[in-house]
Specification:
- The chain is mostly helical.
- The chain has one domain (about 5-30).
- It has helices at about 5-20, 20-30.
- The mean pLDDT is about 85.
Length: about 35
């Protein structure tokens, strides 16, 4: 894929992770606990 597509994909993924940050934090705590 062109670099532009990778950058758009990374930006979309980062926004998705930030939007679900609380979910990922809870999931990390649950997996560690």
């Amino acid at each position: 894929m062109p670099t532009r597509d990778w950058r758009m994909l990374l930006l979309g993924l980062r926004q998705h992770l930030m939007r679900n940050q609380s979910f990922w934090v809870l999931g990390g705590v649950w997996s560690q606990g």
